[in-house]
Amino acid sequence: MRRYSVFAVAREAMRAHKGWEAQWASPEPRSAYDVIIVGAGGHGLGAAYYLAKEHGITNVAVIEKGWLGGGNTGRNTTIIRSNYLYEESMDIYEHSLKLWEGLSQDLNYNVMYSPRGVMMLSHNTHDMQSFKRHINANRLYGIDNEWLTPEQAKAFVPPLDIAKTARYPINGAALQRRGGTARHDAVAWGYARAASDRGVHIIQNCEVTGIRRGPNGDVLGVETSKGFIGAKKIGVSAAGHSSVVMEMAGVRVPLHSTPLQALVSEPLKPIFPCVVMSNTVHAYISQSDKGELVIGAGTDQYNSYSQTGGLQIITHTLDAICELFPMFRRVKMMRQWGGITDNTPDRSPIQGVTPVPGLFVNCGWGTGGFKATPGSANLFAHLIAKGEPHRLAAGLNLDRFRTGRLIDEAAAAAVAH
Amino acid sequence: MADYGADLVNRTSPLSGFHGGSSTVRLEAAPPAERISLRARAEDVAALSSALGVDLPVRPKTSASANARSALWLGPDEWLVIAEENGGLMQAAKNSGALHSATDVSHRNTAILVSGPGAAAAINAGCPQDLSLKVFPVGACSRTVFGKVEIVLLRTGDEAFRMEVWRSFSDYAFGLLAEGAQDAAV
Amino acid sequence: MLLIHCPYCEEDRSELEFRWAGEAHIARPENISAISDEEFAEYFFLRNNEKGLTYERWRHIHGCGRFFNAARDTVSDRFLMTYKAGMPKQMLPETGASEETVETYEATEGDAR
Amino acid sequence: MSTSSNSGTFRIKGAGRLTPARTARFTFDGKSYTALEGDTVASALLAHGVHLLGRSFKYHRPRGILSAGPEEPNALIDVSRDAARRQPNVRATVQEVFDGAKIASQNRWPSLKFDVGAINNLFSPFFAAGFYYKTFMWPREAWVKIYEPFIRRAAGLGVAPTEEDPDHYANRYAHCDVLVAGAGVAGLTAALSAAATGQSVFLVDEQPEVGGALHYDTATTIDGQNGYDWAQATAARLKAMPNVTVLTRTTVFGYYNHGFLGLVERVTDHVAKPGKDLPRERLWQVRAKKVVLATGSIERHMVFANNDRPGIMLASAARTFLNHHGVAVGRQVGIYTAHDSAYETAFDLKRAGVSIAAIVDCRADPGEALLAEARGLGISVLSGHSVTDTGGRLRISSMTVARNGGGDARKIAVDALIVSAGWTPSVHLFSQSRGKLRFDDVNQRFLPNIYAQDCVSVGGCNGTDDLAELIDEAIAAGGGSFALSGENRFEWTGGMIGAAEGAGPDTTVKAFVDFQHDVTAKDIRLAVREGMHSIEHIKRFTTNGMASDQGKLSNMHGLAIAAEMLDRPIPQVGLTTFRAPYTPVTYGTLVGHSRGELFDPARKTPMHALEAGEGAEFEDVGNWKRAWYYPKRGEDMLAAVNRECRTVREVAGVFNGSTLGKIEVVGPDAAQFLNLIYTNAWGSLKPGKSRYGIMTREDGFVYDDGVVGRLAEDRFHVTTTTGGAPRVLHHMEDYLQTEFPHLRVWLTSTTEQWAVIAVQGPKAREIIQPFVEGVDISNEAFPHMSVAECSVMGVPARLFRVSFTGELGYEINVPADYGPAVWKAIWERAEPMGACLYGTETMHVLRAEKGYIIVGQDTDGTVTPYDAGLGWAVSSKKPDFVGIRGLKRPDLVREGRKQLVGLLTKDPALVLEEGGQIVADPNQAKPMTMLGHVTSAYWSENCGRSIALALVAGGRARIGETLYVPLKDRTIEVEVTDMVFFDKDGGRIHG
């Protein structure tokens, strides 16, 4: 693979960029692979990359129904942070954040990881208690997260309205400075390029329609729109469609898929320096390098695979954004879209073995999958290669729903008394 | 203790003194009223109707009025019965002898009267229902939403509505109605 | 914003009046205290999450207050039927299936063939 | 050429529909201009010969006006009335001029004519599509510190407003039988047809006046009249009908599920001095039974070298400026076309006295009728030729024309170049409705195919080009039946998509596909070369179609260029999704009324004003505003709380408990129902008594708690937490309606029926005694946990003997309207006795002194009743309750779960931080093993030291152990204790 560098770009500039090769190959599938990964999002492509890079398993195919990176990888608002509460969560998200920090160099692809800071606004006593619980847990775990006064928050984000007269005045904020954003498409493309370079086959426009199992129940391969493809091991990483794919192997997973919407404004000169989130008023916002304000809305209430949602979700989010940043009322929404998030009962992901030998699952990332991409992919590769989870992902198993040992991040941020 | 008789205590309506509107919409707080939330199964409706002196409607989105009492269908086993103050609704329901649940909600709700040619438009600033006379005729009633709060809406005339709202939401409802009224006049 | 037919109000109303309440026809086990951990997990956590026809519960929370059931296509979000709580799962008339399904919104997007 | 001097030297007398006498003044980049009423900023500036309006996104190339409508990618301006009313990124082709408007160009520094950023254009070979993915990676920190800030500053177009928007916005929900989007010939006819049948109709158009293409197309007659006049007359007819609503300056921006459409109506942006009552914009949220899409089509530009200079313009735009605004776009105009429609522009210009340099038609054989007309007008037509380049710096000065296939190139001087590559049907709304498109191979366009909603497309957006056919289609769509004649002069044919001659794959010229984002044909080819084979990949890699015009002009060209590179038919390459909104929509419009006090209801209790009058500070608890503490002069929060805490235990305190959730549970099976919902047993509770209850969900975790009073055999007064009231009622209704429908019981929310006045402390009885009638409240007759219906100050009341402080206490429930009077009377009596008013903070401290938990603070959804030390409240005798099975799961019964305990700091003066984490060894390496966290921590004035509650792993077995709470700046040593810090034997509550 030709390395990307400023010299390579300059050289190509002089010959009208005609020398660039395809970033990834588009091969026809082989009859069988050692490992098949279902779903060419960041998690699936990344897992294939790490299987090749760290475990020496290169006879791998990533099978994608549509175009690579076209699911939630290419639809999210690209927030990266690791300041979660429970150890299981901190383990995987911090592992991920550490990989983000060197990802561009590792992949030789600028994924534009931008640690501009993620600030979560506190509006009341309950928020403050909850945030300080997170901050203390993070600090003792070695993860940066700090408490800011309203004035410090305003200094960090000048457009913020910290007036005491606001409907929900801000009484402080939690800031993770290493948190930030990255360029979502670049993550998928960077992993695809690096995986393809190591021999991984990326098969786009190939829908998995069944999972074939042998007499002992173990996996034999997948039925697809391009015919049967054999595999000793199958890793399912299909985000909103995970339960559909798992059902093909007769495995039920506790998921429900809901629309999640987002929107961007018209491009504006830099005005918003970091990521700001508020759970109380339900909004999060950042500004892309192109200048668009990127705003995440909430999930619609019902199960759906439609990738659309209601206008009321958008308006509700903008109510909150304009309450926090009243000068944005004259800014315009340029584009809105939806993705399908796969949510678990405890809002924490599932990554682990399944009752079917050779079948592994990575799903349930809900609204938090993008930030976990490198970490999840890296640990999923370990799971598939070794047949058992890495220490850092051991708690994310399916069995927790039987035992009741949930990782309930949502409950931990419980509603006010 | 005799010092503190009932006459010393007057109802302080959450919207007392509120009025407003625009050139096409009049907004005013309704006078204090007595209200019960009445729940009963179909077989007990007749007995309750006769005890209350008003026929509890059994068709969705309809209301009935008689003897200074109005009964609003809210659900298949639920009515909001409204009377003037001290209307004796709890006792009347009790007198029916029928199986039911009556709960005094006189003070839970307050009401805003919305009238004028722009009334429906003002309410549609926050209410997603079709308020055309064809779909929401005089006498029609429904629990629904108004902006970010729940209301019960009753059409009392071609251009007149009664909006029942929980008391702590009444400031909000009145404020949104005031803006809706202003916009309806444009 | 969905438009939902409430079988009690006998009228189509805005989604704003409703609250979704999960998969329908999951009965609480009568002998719940005696079931196994697996059975409990199945009852409490596992849902079909169908892509396509799903049976689900809604509550007309800001209307008549009633819970009811609906059959909906989770790909098109089209409601095929709503019916009152307590009624058995309703089979759908055959005609519904023969309609040419319009796939997802994103199906109009490019396929990298 | 005769001109009207003050409104512009390019204004043509007698042309257009504007009234010369009605003028408006505005400034552009500080220079003052006169416009006519009805001008857009674009037409007004063109009238003065101003073509340079902006700079492009990436290369900062000079850009002018390309279109006359909302598809405009180039002419984006900043419009302001005053400092706070400033709007960036406005399309000059849509913004109507109003007197006093201040217009400024964007994305340039220091000036529009001399823009330093234009240096990017020189480096453009370096800045090919996706170049940033390949570089800026070294050294690692430089991306954040150097490259990214540089890119961010260079990108972005307009400057965001910095002041709060003083304008207001309105919202309106509406319903109709038929909504017609677009009021051109097709839309007007469909609306007329639908209206005649008596259906309720919305007719919506984005322009100030109806007419659509009739704005420029002066050669069409409808019903024997000039088309535009027919349109206005028809609109007037429709407006007069009671079943029709006509909305102009209104865009249907989104077509959502189930016939739901979002419309934005621009109410005042065109008005010089808008009335204060007027909203700036109004959001219409319309539910339509049927939708008729009559959105027409959009003309495409030609993709050729340097096709972006100011002065290069779509043919329909030039014709609009001439025929509607009376403005000539140049004096020596060239035409470059692949479609017949541009000819009519040339004819109209020529007739208006403008010199036409030549019509360059890339087609070999244009229609004979057009050629004849051109000949008649003395216009030279170069068929089989192409424009291969243009010249000029800030405006086009020449076009280079060559015969197709090479050779014969010559330069022709022009001051404007009119282009047309044909028409793209506006299928955006159809696509948003989730309809499926098909590709029309003959005419190279996507057309509606499979409908997903009750919707029909008519006219241009349906690919119906023939006027008579279009009219019939529209009449049928409306459901009516009548005859209407229509005639136009020429049948239009032609069109092309993709790169034109001279901009093919073998060239390196800058032939722009997406103007705003500076995406050229070669960028798209590069994307394909780099393996981007899906149109979505190509879009994202090049950003083609992602600018503020969302690809209205560029998508089809981009697709064709990609298809050519991929050597695949267009439908196989696909089409990017058309997402809402059709054109950008102001946040303020979407927010509507939901701002300030209407952002979210602030719930206030009946006594709120009285509390405020006593100087209360309030805190937000859910939607509620609750009195937090009552500082006296000179007191800070801690001093006030300390005083309140002391006073309650020494004398008494009065507290507003009105926000507590309340549910009336009524019916013969009420107790049975509560048995199922709570962990406690209720059958044994006698009328007149109350009990503290715990509620879990099936998972066995604490969901809510509260005191439940039994008023009668069949009537319970249930209380919930303040924040929990709605979800608890929903949870109860769920079980009642769907799991236990056989039970004869009904639930009613009574939270707001009752004002709740808690009087707590040794003197509580003495304070309330005189007010209470109908019940003996002596300690013997009315002990702790009694409840009675009685009368307080003569009003019907419910009196609870209950305590959340550990003191003798009562909670008086009176109907809410009486709350203020009763509160006032009680306070007037209590105050002289030395009592105080106290708020939620003191309530929290006092209950913590007694080890009473707050659900949601000391529990978090992962805590069982056993964990919380409330195992006594879980009945072991009941055969069933919600949570009975969940509680027995392996992890919920394991050893070592986190349990609620007390913590005492070794240094009594130190108050722990709520949320502090607890460890056994503070010196261990990170990541540390954490045992739990501090859930509540206060200074207890009554204990004379700090106190805390905490969830600690295996907590109850650790009582007596020393643990540590490492905070940011120090580590605090604590001892694990039981949870009761004050009055351990609990005697006071029975006092």
SSE inventory with pairings:
The complex is a heterotetramer of chains A (417), B (186), C (113) and D (991).
Chain A: H1 6-13, E1 32-38, H2 42-55, E2 60-63, E3 79-80, H3 87-101, H4 103-107, E4 118-122, H5 125-141, E5 146-148, H6 150-156, E6 172-176, E7 180-181, H7 184-197, E8 201-203, E9 208-213, E10 219-224, E11 227-236, H8 242-248, E12 256-265, E13 275-278, E14 283-287, E15 293-299, H9 311-324, E16 332-343, E17 350-353, E18 359-363, H10 369-386, H11 400-403, H12 409-412
Parallel strand pairs in A: 1-2, 1-11, 2-8, 4-13, 11-18
Antiparallel strand pairs in A: 3-7, 4-6, 5-6, 9-10, 10-11, 12-15, 12-16, 13-14, 14-15, 17-18
Chain B: E1 19-21, E2 26-29, E3 33-39, H1 45-52, E4 63-66, E5 69-75, E6 78-84, H2 89-95, E7 101-104, E8 109-115, H3 119-123, E9 141-146, E10 149-157, E11 160-166, H4 170-184
Antiparallel strand pairs in B: 1-2, 2-8, 3-6, 3-7, 4-5, 5-6, 8-11, 9-10, 10-11
Chain D: E1 23-28, E2 31-36, H1 41-47, E3 54-55, E4 62-63, E5 76-80, E6 86-91, E7 101-105, H2 119-122, H3 142-154, E8 169-181, H4 185-196, E9 201-204, E10 221-222, E11 225-226, H5 227-239, E12 244-247, E13 250-256, E14 260-266, E15 281-293, E16 297-299, E17 312-314, H6 315-323, E18 332-337, H7 341-351, E19 355-361, H8 368-377, E20 381-383, E21 385-391, E22 398-403, E23 410-413, E24 416-420, E25 423-425, H9 428-432, E26 436-440, E27 445-450, E28 455-457, H10 467-478, E29 486-487, E30 512-514, E31 519-520, H11 521-529, H12 535-542, H13 555-566, H14 570-573, E32 585-586, H15 587-591, H16 608-613, E33 617-621, E34 624-629, H17 637-650, E35 653-656, E36 661-666, H18 670-677, E37 690-696, E38 702-712, E39 715-720, H19 725-739, E40 746-749, E41 754-760, H20 764-768, E42 772-773, E43 787-792, E44 795-801, E45 809-815, H21 819-830, E46 836-837, H22 840-849, E47 898-905, E48 917-918, E49 932-940, E50 945-953, E51 962-966, E52 971-977
